[in-house]
Amino acid sequence: MLVVDDQFLIRAGLVGLLDAAPGFEVVGEAGDGEQAVRLAAETRPDVILMDIRMPGVNGIEATERILAQATDRPPRILVLTTFDLDEYVYGALRAGASGFLLKDSGPERLLAAVTAVDGGDALFAPSVTRRLVEAFARQQEPADTAPPPDLGVLTSREMEVLKLTARGLSNLEIADRLYISEATVKTHLNRTMTKLDLGSRAQAVVLAYESGLVTPGG
């Protein structure tokens, strides 16, 4: 695990907590985004705790660069933030971060979050992702963003699953709605992410809004 935060005391506290917990190993710590990108390439951690607001290379750019340079299994990036409705967090999710965690979360929540993203699970309730994305997706200017991938590569059922995911439904709720198994929902979502070259469920939600598949408030 790699811990990235520009404030020494916060970084040291996170490292101490993780090192003391069974099953967790910190392979490095960085005080800025530039150092984080370099250490991620050197140590190849499974999970990165990424501070979002840092001078110089911020957490969004660091996330983009780390995921772009990953060769095999990309690290799961968990963004640390002070505010849940934060445009920087939105940018990090758009770049492929697996989830976010408030800095005032307790130790148990932190350890559970790291375990969840390491296993590829959704870290937070989909409704939280939806609230965040709705708050900022409408503010995106077309000139400032790359065109979204073509959704035409998806089957009608994959499109349905993506749409319901973006609307904040859990896998179980989607399964009940479509009369399919929860495992089948996961399969459709995984295929969707592969076809669209997406790294996380949160990134899929962002895409659904930015492509117009789902509209804020809809």
List keywords for this structure.
transcription regulation; five-stranded parallel beta sheet; 10 helices; 218 residues; 10% strand; globular; alpha/beta
Would you kindly provide a brief summary of this structure?
By secondary structure, this protein is an alpha/beta fold.
Notes on the structure:
The chain is an alpha/beta fold. It has helices at 8-20, 33-43, 59-69, 87-95, 107-118, 126-137, 156-166, 171-178, 182-195, 201-210, and strands at residues 2-4, 28-30, 47-51, 76-81, 99-102. Strands 2-1-3-4-5 form a 5-stranded parallel sheet, with helices on both faces. Helix 7 packs across helix 10. The model has no long low-confidence stretch (mean pLDDT 85).
How is the secondary structure organized here?
Elements: E1 2-4, H1 8-20, E2 28-30, H2 33-43, E3 47-51, H3 59-69, E4 76-81, H4 87-95, E5 99-102, H5 107-118, H6 126-137, H7 156-166, H8 171-178, H9 182-195, H10 201-210
N-to-C SSE string, H for helix and E for strand: EHEHEHEHEHHHHHH
Radius of gyration: 17 Å
- The overall strand count is 5
State the shape: globular
Low-confidence stretches: none
Q: What distance separates the N and C termini?
A: 39 Å
Protein name: Response regulator transcription factor
Keywords: DNA-binding, Phosphoprotein, Transcription, Transcription regulation
Domain HTH luxR-type: 147-212
Pfam family, one: Response_reg
